[in-house]
Recover the amino acids of this structure.
């Protein structure tokens, strides 16, 4: 596709429910990132994939958060037993080359807006 | 811990005026990014600044980087309403693949 695509765009979950958020990166992009953006804040790093390898998951806030990218393209962020503090926009981003150490452009999706009630 | 601070957090300005948004960061990094975000939309990449003294311009926006001062600026020239958005700076966390974002500057350009 032309850009990074995320689904669902909006999700309302009851507290304790599991959710899965999908990201379709730009075709051929090696790097994939997940960020969490709370209302009125800047995005915060969650995790990074280089192809199918999850090289950094240091930003995942708890063991309820799990991300995968099994074939090196589509990625899923799963949140188990959702809590109200999980309410945020979850942004996926991709870039053509490995990481952003070379300063290459990182393209963001429009995000999945999660509200936990 | 790398911290990124932007100021002002909110900026209301009139069309035709000039203003500057500042981005300070706390530890050494040689790469700084500026993004624009419209309400409910994705982050749009504006500039990638890779070295000390780097200056880039696109339309009415100009960004610069001073790595010694750990400061980047985003200068707006002769603002127009279409520039109204939230602007974020972000800095590479050294030796990682993380971007550390500032809290953003909400820019409102009044006619």
């Amino acid at each position: 596709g032309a850009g990074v695509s995320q689904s669902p765009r909006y999700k309302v979950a009851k507290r304790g429910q599991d959710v899965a958020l999908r990201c379709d990166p730009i075709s051929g992009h090696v790097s994939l990132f997940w960020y969490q953006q709370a209302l009125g804040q800047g995005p915060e790093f969650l995790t990074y994939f280089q192809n199918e390898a999850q090289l950094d998951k240091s930003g995942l806030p708890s063991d309820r958060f799990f991300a995968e990218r099994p074939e090196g393209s589509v990625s899923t962020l799963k949140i188990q037993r959702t809590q109200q503090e999980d309410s945020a926009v979850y942004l996926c981003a991709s870039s053509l080359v490995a990481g952003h150490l070379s300063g290459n452009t990182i393209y963001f999706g429009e995000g999945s807006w999660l509200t936990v009630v | 811990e790398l911290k990124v601070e932007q100021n002002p957090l909110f900026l209301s300005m009139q069309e035709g005026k000039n203003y500057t948004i500042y981005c300070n960061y706390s530890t050494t990094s040689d790469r700084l990014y500026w993004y624009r975000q419209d309400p409910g939309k994705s982050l749009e990449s504006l500039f990638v600044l890779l070295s000390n003294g780097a200056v880039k311009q696109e339309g009415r926006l100009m960004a610069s980087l001073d790595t010694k001062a750990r400061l980047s600026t985003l200068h707006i020239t002769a603002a127009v309403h279409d520039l109204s958005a939230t602007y974020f700076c972000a800095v590479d966390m050294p030796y990682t693949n993380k971007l550390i974002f500032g809290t953003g500057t909400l820019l409102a350009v009044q006619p």
Q: What stands out?
A: The radius of gyration of chain A is 13 Å. Residues 9 and 112 of chain A are 4 Å apart (CA to CA). The longest strand of chain A covers residues 88-95. Chain A has no helices and eleven strands.
